[in-house]
């Protein structure tokens, strides 16, 4: 697990500590929440993550994205992990997630390992937060798990790759991330991971009914992408979100934008919207990786603090994909149905 997160650690621990010390806005979340009840929680999660990483270099990226998509729908309450049932229309099948969000099996493995070490203690919402921020030891914990999910909300609150800059900003503002720095720093999450052709091929041939490609796409990169994602081709083919250092957590995402090498329209728009405050932020993060890392941690913690369930709200699920005590009837999983009889 050395690569994606390794570089964040040294620089960021300091920032996270500062932030913890100086802020009183963390509700009831605390970085030491499990110190007495499940002291090995973080190392158990790290162990599963390291194991998964051996066969899937992308898994860290996929888990950060799960946390993001969890937090943007009624807050960070593990709702994205719930399966379909008679009463729950899962967020897994919402438009931004279906055939796209991944890593659920790894989360289930983390939960299984934690249930065996300390049953009923560590929430699925916190597993997502810990896995996403494994490099930042002080991530505040204490989130509990939702009893419901909302596919309808997931459809509309999660930002999309063809959203305008105004819409991207308003989706962040609507969840309480009301500062351009949050949008630009968190978009830096696209410094690793993959995207399918369907999420950017609108830019390649007939952009916005112009009969031309997106003018803000570097012509060299355009040629590469046109070859990877030809018209009428397989739209599930994957491209690296960061063409220079695809699996490394660094600030190259921002220098890519400066040379018109952002993959998604929603990436490039942060730099190509002349006069917008986002342009200066991109320049800043591109020229100073430390400034990016510090802002990324601050914004990840702000995002992780969005309307968590705490105290006695919600529950601690024993299986991340199912509400405790829920009837198995209506589950999408026939094997569960059979094994429960
Ligand atoms: C600003 C608005 C955002 C938009 C429009 C957006 C959109 C997307 C899209 C379309 C993909 C590709 C999905 C696919 O092809 O299946 C993607 C992947 C990804 N996103 Fe975002 N995203 C945004 C913000 C974020 C944030 C805030 C984070 C985390 C801090 C993030 C982390 C990731 C990661 C790591 C991947 C790769 C996942 C993988 O390889 O499995 N994104 N995003
Ligand atoms: C935590 O892990 C250490 C070493 O991995 C082990 O010796 C210890 O027994 C574990 N403690 C608990 C409470 O599981
Ligand atoms: C999710 O994707 C699967 C497989 O492509 C498809 O069968 C299903 O209808 C999709 N779900 C929704 C709600 O669109
Ligand atoms: C969510 O979006 C998908 C795809 O656009 C649509 O088929 C589905 O009806 C929507 N579901 C809800 C509950 O809004
Ligand atoms: C965002 O918030 C930080 C910290 O509160 C502040 O220093 C910064 O000026 C804000 N940035 C923007 C673009 O609003
Ligand atoms: C698409 O075209 C419309 C009408 O010409 C224009 O107002 C809009 O800004 C364009 N969108 C993008 C992303 O270029
Ligand atoms: C499309 O590409 C995806 C990802 O590479 C692959 O898994 C899938 O099998 C391909 N589908 C077809 C019909 O070739
Ligand atoms: C296109 O990208 C290359 C590097 O891949 C860079 O050298 C060049 O300056 C870029 N061109 C523009 C117009 O941004
Ligand atoms: C730009 O970076 C400097 C440090 O290099 C920082 O002090 C300043 O607040 C940053 N500006 C913005 C808008 O983030
Ligand atoms: C880079 O950013 C950090 C953190 O904001 C700041 O302390 C440092 O002075 C900046 N370096 C330069 C060269 O601007
Ligand atoms: C949830 O769905 C996934 C995929 O269909 C399945 O692997 C998992 O076992 C299900 N979980 C439960 C508790 O039914």
Structure report:
Its EC number is 1.11.1.7. Residues 28-324 form the Plant heme peroxidase family profile domain. There is one protein chain. The chain is mostly helical and 341 residues long. It folds into 2 domains: 20-158 and 305-336, Peroxidase, domain 1 (Orthogonal Bundle), CATH 1.10.520; 165-298, Peroxidase, domain 2. It is 46% helix and 2% strand. The chain contains 14 helices and 2 strands. It has helices at residues 3-22, 41-55, 59-71, 104-117, 124-132, 151-157, 165-175, 180-187, 219-228, 252-258, 265-272, 277-287, 289-304, 334-340; strands spanning 194-196, 238-240. It has a two-stranded antiparallel sheet with strand order 1-2. The longest helix is centred in the first third of the chain and has 20 residues, at 3-22. The termini are far apart. The protein binds protoporphyrin IX containing FE and 2-acetamido-2-deoxy-beta-D-glucopyranose (10 copies). Residues 181, 280-281, 284, 288, 291 line the site of one 2-acetamido-2-deoxy-beta-D-glucopyranose.
